[in-house]
Amino acid sequence: MAPAWVHPLVAVVKRDIVNDSLVTSIESQWHNPKDTLSVLLLLSPDVIRQAIAQQTGRRIVPVAFSFGWVAYGAMSLLHTFGDGHLMPPTDVNNVLVLTADSGHVRSSSSWVLGRLLRDVTHSVDNGIRHEQAKVASTGAEPFKQGQQPSVAAVEQQKSMESTPWEALRVSIYQLDDRADDTVPQVDGVWRSGVVTILIQLVLSIVPCLVYREWHVFLITAAGTILALATSSLPQWRDEKWACPKTGGPTVAITTGNGSRHVIIVENDRKNDKGLHLELLAHGTRVFRPSLLTKISCVAFATLWICLLITMAGIEDNTWYLLAIGAIGSAQNLYAAAAIRSPAAHGIHVKLKETIVDSKVAPVLKRVEQRYPSLGLSLVEIFFPASLRVKDPEDLEFWRGAMERRLAENKHGIRLDRIGEVSAGQPEVASRDAVQGV
């Protein structure tokens, strides 16, 4: 039997050995974090999906190789063989599309229209960031006679006077005939993808020059080729602009009551240019992926898994791959969330004019003057409980607008007016003209 003093000594020795082993493991992991690299490849596939949706449209879609591509490859199989949509659903809720000539209102499920409204509204909000409050008040006492106002007070007064309160802004756009529909304009997001890919390839060459090891470059090149091929499938373009490209009606886009911005895109059903935004909003022209798309997604998912297995076996210079993946993830995140122009979304329009006022009703009146029936449709959106008017001029205007809307046209008589017309009653009752608006 061992002496009593041996047991504490053995415990100390074991503890020191365990501590040394733990320190060695931590040092080894920080020196070459190969296990972490494999796990990171399975993160954030949704960011990659949105980055592709943002940039798709041209033949080459420069979405950089990054963390999450392996998980996205597997997720694309679920969408391809499941709901049949590579494009993500719209991330802007309650987008409404109103048709000018018919007055129809549709809830939009289009990614493009949601991002278009979000980005244009963001630009408008930046322009009115320092607008006057709805109840004009600077919070300071008025200047007394003979009193010298401070510089800050004068600047605040100028700012309040130069940016009056806007209850509603209507931005009217017209088509740009010089551009090709569904071909996005090259902007900073597209260029960032190209620049990021070049930076990644240059960084991957460093181990070749310093350590004579080519595995980092080969994996980066393979991942980049796979990323470009996966994001350049034609199915992406077909889903993003799933509508005719031969013109369509004038439409208004808004998020409804409570919103302070409406976009109107002028077009003509007889025109052979421009997207049919009404059908794009409804999403009825989206076709399920073809057999070629399904086979491609299966092949890409398999290759991504092979790349993951290959990366899991790398023992040296894994910090370079971590840096390359982090740079690519930053580009993906930027591309997925970036604010872009309408042309960068493939909708080539130019701003024609804006209609603004400190009250909503005058804005809708001017819209109705320009686009009959569209103003009335917006009235139903922004005044769900009906708009009330008392000015004789406004009363006469809205009564005439209601009469034109409910009158017989080339398509026939409205079903809800057949009884009144058959009985010899006027098509529009006074109550409908005044209180039903």
Tell me the strand order in the biggest sheet: 2-1-4-5-3-6
Beta strands, count: 6
Helix content: 40-55%
Tell me the series of helices and strands, N- to C-terminal.
HHHHEEHHEHHHEEHHHEHHHHH
Our estimate of the beta-strand percent is 5-15%
User: How would you classify the quaternary structure?
Assistant: single chain
Number of domains: 2
Spans where pLDDT lies below 50 across 5 or more residues: 136-147, 426-437
Please give the largest β-sheet.
6 strands, mixed
Mean pLDDT: 82
How far is the N terminus from the C terminus?
Answer: 102 Å
What Rg is obtained from the alpha carbons, in whole angstroms?
A: 31 Å
Counted by DSSP, the helix tally is 17
- Which term fits the overall shape? elongated
Class derived from helix and strand content? alpha+beta
Transmembrane segments: 295-314, 320-339
Keywords: Membrane, Transmembrane, Transmembrane helix
Tell me what the structure shows.
By secondary structure, the protein is of the alpha+beta class. The chain folds into 2 domains: 34-123 and 178-345, no CATH class; 358-434, no CATH class. It has 17 helices and 6 strands. It has helices at residues 6-31, 34-40, 45-55, 69-81, 111-127, 151-162, 188-211, 215-231, 234-240, 277-282, 291-312, 318-337, 360-370, 374-382, 392-406, 418-422, 430-434, and strands at 96-99, 105-107, 168-175, 251-254, 261-266, 349-357. It has a 6-stranded mixed beta sheet with strand order 2-1-4-5-3-6, sandwiched between helices. The longest helix is centred in the N-terminal third of the chain and has 26 residues, at 6-31.
